[in-house]
Amino acid sequence: MDEKILVTRSSMPSYEEYIEAIKPLWDTHWLTNMGVYHHELEEKLKVYLDVPELSLMVNGHMALEMTIQAFGFPEGSEVITTPFTFISTTHAIVRNGLKPVFCDVKEEDGTIDEAKIEDLISERTVAILPVHVYGNICNVEAIEHIANKYNLRVIYDAAHAFSVAYKGKGIGNYGDASIFSFHATKVFNTIEGGAVAFREPRIYDKLYNLKNFGIRGEEIVSEVGANAKMNEFCAIMGLLNLKRTDYAIRERKKRYDFYIQCLKDVEGLRFLRQKGDATNNYAYFPVLIGEGYGKSRDELFDLLRENGIYARKYFYPLTSDQACFKNKFKNVDLKVARKLADEVMVLPLYEELKMESIERICGIINSNR
Ligand SMILES: *Cc1c(COP(=O)(O)O)cnc(C)c1O
After folding, report:
1. Structural domains in the chain plus CATH codes
2. Considering Cα of 122, then 123, then 124, then 126, what sign does the dihedral take?
3. Below-70 pLDDT ranges, the chain
4. Which of 62, 85, 88 to mutate to test the pocket of ligand 1 (most atoms within 8 A of CB)?
5. pTM of the predicted model over 0.90
6. C-alpha 172 – ligand 1 centre gap (Å)
7. How far apart are alpha carbons 111 and 105 in whole angstroms?
8. Which atom in ligand 1 lies closest to the alpha carbon of residue 64?
């Protein structure tokens, strides 16, 4: 039986390093509620992500929910977003009592098609919530232009875009806010975790209250908050992983480039493109299985599975097609998103993935047509 290869493998510091780093917690017994490591990680991430303000969260999903709540949109308002994403994006909108309006995406990179946004704007639209899917950045200038013209907020789901920079600036500088995920499966992890990057300093206090039950003083609760605080064990994991993130991304790049080299001449396969002037974090290796390839995406997916290779169909089905959302919202033509969802497959990619494993995966893709 061939070795089983999963789509990803979490980045970790050495066991000894982590054990040494958490020792002080046994002196202080301060385990959560915005402790010293929480503070230190916020400061270090501001520098690493090159953003003016940042608030840590318990995970990326709550970062998104809290951020949407922080802007205080009226109930039932519409948010323009895309369905070619992880389900979290759509859940966060709906759980805030808002209506997602799905916009189609672009064939070359899977991000929101900015040319189709204006047609979807109504008098109830309050925000645009695009996704930097696979770390491919959206057309942030065009989106900003539309948002200014119609007085809309822009919140980016940047869960995949850790460390990505555009025109020399951290991607978290664009829009009113950007959320990042530090889940174990992401490029940078704090086991579970996330953060919100933003420009206006007052948002920091707002998010601080919301992630701590809306508590404003010892005896005062001023708004309906939740518990979305990152604990000290996770913050320490983050501090250690942050030191090796650049290394991890370099290792991912080597493997990404090797995949391209092995697969570039296979007829019917296509790859997504990062926008010019933007850096890559090599978070994922998505490949599109088009008509010119001898098999369908599902057939190739099954064949890889039979060989112990656990690729994933990110992102199929579209979130708008999931049972909890199907036929509930405005019916928009999502032709391109649907095509991508039918063709896409994410191949295994992580810093320790063996080059021989990539050869084996590409061998199967190359020979079984
Ligand atoms: C991972 C992810 C999230 C949610 O992040 P968690 O940290 O897992 O809660 C949100 N959006 C996208 C696109 C993601 O991939």
Report:
1. 15-243 (3.40.640.10), 244-367 (3.90.1150.10)
2. positive
3. 1, 368-369
4. 88
5. yes
6. 16
7. 5
8. 10
